[in-house]
Structures are given as structure tokens and as C-alpha cells.
Amino acid sequence: MRIGLLGGSFNPPHQAHRAISLFALKRLQLDRVWWLVTPGNPLKNNGELHALAERAEAARKVAADPRIEISCLESVIGTRYTADTIDYLRRRASRLRFVWIMGADNLAQFHRWQKWQHIAAQVPMAVVDRPPRSFRALNAPAARALARYRIPEADASRLADRTAPAWVYLTGLKLSLSSTGLRNPDGSWKSF
């Protein structure tokens, strides 16, 4: 099976998460996408983070597709770091072919993630364009460091079969929705 991994706070989950997942399922020829609802992002202020169970339940409602599965794995294995999560999954599910999915906004700051080079060496990555962040993302330190491993977008359907490091930049999905934009100043969620 070919599994896309979409990690995040999902605070709150929203239709762009779903759209990115459906887009990745199609473009990357994936069997499933797992939403990895993190207990907390080490690079963000988690003071206004809703309870993990609340975020996971909201994610299930938004996903509304049997090919999108919701997981709180990082809470179970006791980590907040993607590198640890990927190492765990590769040990426990070695027969599955994983692809890490992230938005261009995450590529722009990927060099700040713990063990980002290790992540890139362990699992192929798909970066979904999020205008107007495209230029900044493609010129970020991690994108420049990994430039020689970027594959043409036309080969995206074979990304899951490639040996890491390998990554593709996917264009065509134009969504500006963000969790930050769906939170009130006090951290509560706007109706969605």
C-alpha cells in the first residue's frame, strides 16, 4: 500500500486539509492518506491548542472519506517530532510505502524542523503549492539543499516507489484557507 502522511496540529481541521488529501491521493496514486494529529508542534505556541481528542474528532468529521484515516500516533509513541514518527512507521510498517505531504509554507521553514535532513533521507516528500508562498518556499534553505532530488511534476504518480531522498512540487490546487485564519483571537474556532 502507498500511504500519504499529512501531519499537523489540525487546530482546527478544515476543507483545505481534505482538498490537499484528495489531491495527493489522485496525483500521487496513493491508497490512503493518514492525518497525523500532533499533540503539539515544537515550532508553534501551543497555548491555544485545543485538546487532542477534540481535534481528532473534528478531523474525522472534516475528512469524510474512507481513504483518509485520522491518527494520534505521535501521542501514543510519545513524540512531537516528524523524524521520530517516520522512524517508528518505517520500523513497524516496513511493507508500506510512505510519502510525507506538506504545504509549501512548511517547505519554507522545513530547515527548522528537528532532523530535517534525516526526514528527507527516509521518505519521499510531496510539497503542495500554496500561493503566494511559492517563491519563498522554493528558495528556502531546505529546498535549495534538496534541489537535486526534486523530480518533475509529471512523475508524481511514481513518487511513492522512489527511494528517498526524492520530492515533487505539486501545483494546480489553489487554496488559501488556513487553520490560523479559522481561529478567533482567544484561540477558539470559528464556525466552519
From TrEMBL:
Reactions the enzyme catalyzes: nicotinate beta-D-ribonucleotide + ATP + H(+) = deamido-NAD(+) + diphosphate
Alphabetically ordered keywords of this record: ATP-binding, NAD, Nucleotide-binding, Nucleotidyltransferase, Pyridine nucleotide biosynthesis, Transferase
EC supergroup of this enzyme: transferase
Top-rank lineage group of the source organism: Bacteria
Domain Cytidyltransferase-like: 5-145
Pathway(s) it belongs to: Cofactor biosynthesis; NAD(+) biosynthesis; deamido-NAD(+) from nicotinate D-ribonucleotide: step 1/1
Role, per record: Catalyzes the reversible adenylation of nicotinate mononucleotide (NaMN) to nicotinic acid adenine dinucleotide (NaAD).
Sequence similarity: Belongs to the NadD family.
Protein name in UniProt: Probable nicotinate-nucleotide adenylyltransferase
Organism: Bradyrhizobium ontarionense
